[in-house]
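Hi W.,

Here's what went into the run:
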Amino acid sequence: MSGRNPKSGADAFKPRRPVLADVAKRAGVSISLVSIVMRGVPGASPANRERILKVAADLGYVPDARARMLRQERSHLLGVMFGVQQLFHADVVEGIYAAAETTGYEVVLSAVTNARPESRAVDTLLADHCEAVLLIGPQSAKSWLTDLAARLPVVVVARSINAPGVDAVRTAEAKGIGLAVDHLVALGHSRVFHIDGGNAPGADQRRRGFRAAMQRHGLVPVSVSGGLADVDGAEATSRILNGANLPTAILAYNDRCATGVLDTLYRAGVKVPAQISVVGFDDTHLAGLSHIDLTTVRQDASVMARLAVQRAVARLDGPEEQRTPRDSVVPPALVVRGSTSRAPRPEKAWKRRG
Amino acid sequence: MSGRNPKSGADAFKPRRPVLADVAKRAGVSISLVSIVMRGVPGASPANRERILKVAADLGYVPDARARMLRQERSHLLGVMFGVQQLFHADVVEGIYAAAETTGYEVVLSAVTNARPESRAVDTLLADHCEAVLLIGPQSAKSWLTDLAARLPVVVVARSINAPGVDAVRTAEAKGIGLAVDHLVALGHSRVFHIDGGNAPGADQRRRGFRAAMQRHGLVPVSVSGGLADVDGAEATSRILNGANLPTAILAYNDRCATGVLDTLYRAGVKVPAQISVVGFDDTHLAGLSHIDLTTVRQDASVMARLAVQRAVARLDGPEEQRTPRDSVVPPALVVRGSTSRAPRPEKAWKRRG
DNA sequence: CTGTTAGCGCATTCAA
DNA sequence: TTGAATGCGCTAACAG
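Here's what came out:
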């Protein structure tokens, strides 16, 4: 009970969090020695090291990231912008953490939500002194990305973008759609519709890829405007069902959109895949659920994440020839599940009721 | 072109990011005036304010969060730990951002992944000087939470915990399970099994709630060990199907687990809900997909998020009587969908094949 | 191996 | 309304 803090009068004040000096005083050494120990760099005797670590633990000392980074020339921080509700983004984020582990960089997350636009998300990343930012599926204008890229290395993941100064890691979207079309054509389908993603990441590439693949097979490509949510897929499907021309297969912009398609077909009493085959994109966890059991084009999130981190680190620390932005294209793969089957014979094809 | 940086010799150096002093020099005013303007506090003439803001924008000045927070007594940061793959957590995170918006606190995210345990996630939050932490569905030991709560306000969301010093915002789990049991009993079910969540958040409460509800109806509660992933639900269902005693309804720990249940039943040729009814928990986006169409117990993520933020802020800034931790219980609601129906007549009940 | 010193960018007294 | 000085907690360079 002796030797307590001899500060004047007041008895109950908020317990300040311990700092380097507190640890030093308690251990009877200098501040810089404690700093050396906390950073794990050589320069302290084993005995002191052990004792200081013990004192620090006792006090509950946690290094102050703010002060540490303020002092250091570099932050070694990678900023990641992602959509908190996006299944595919979650896969990429997980991969980014794993990939960053071995690089000496820390990851800082910034979420995009309904109430939090991309610009806000990135501003906090900048304020935090991230050295590079990885943007997952950004929707912002190209010019905005270009401006951002003038300030620090920007790696765009899962959006096909051709903006100067911006690194991109993307799936070969057109090729992926091509795989899906080839698969359907091999199953005898000829009336294949594409429900596109509107302005969503990669939507344009997928639309083009669809057109090219269909034409390659001598078929007529029909694209219907959709979006990235299930409601978009549902609405588009309703429009299709109300139209004159009916497909035997639907290629949705992504898995989530495809669930909306399945939904609407199911409610309309259309059998999948007997009457209409459905293909998604992404191979999110959703697609594998056996009640959905969706044939889909797989984007490899962990490979994309690894490449994205590699690119960011190369831009920052790599040799000169690695410091310029580039495109990294990851090959997609078709995952065949139960939502596709041989095209129905014309006379057995689905007819509108009533 | 006069008055350029008079630094010696070198011509091409890395473009340092602008700081307060750069803006001040360019605008021909003092640093502190720029500071006043950037913080938006009174003390500058409208003319100056406008000009300074313009210069700052031109230079691409972004306040340095590290330095700002180092200087300030308080960080006004709320740390949020969440599982990046958890659908329900995403809903809560979104709600937390929305709720924090009006409080003057910023949100800092820290993800838990396979390779990143909760302790690491929280350590970064502490290093960042968060004033309080909101932990979504933490799995860590109670003692760890108690220790943490000794350092700063801790709000646990979606886990029923009775740890001293810890705030909790949770659903009335037992009541939710009770609603599900009541629903099933009203449909004539008597052989109801519960696939539990093992050690997962709330699992124990749900198990107890199940037992109590069944006994209230004079029925025998059967609990089977499960978990929070779909594979857990699938495995448990296999065991059930191989057992001697067959249920007419299964209550899964959560929606994700329930999809595993549906999956396995589907593969085994068991019709849902004709032969077995299935109920989930959470009402994640998953449950509403019509191909899953799962009757489930809804946890209101946005209400929970709002309460959690309120509690954190009250602990930090509230009047004295608000500064002690407490439990906030959110009522659940049953969402009836297509995975439940009237119990099959005994003679029509599902029989094992072969 | 250890302690001393300076300064990162900013907010904040206090003077002018 | 403005400007000069101080220090937040820490690291880095140097001196003992």
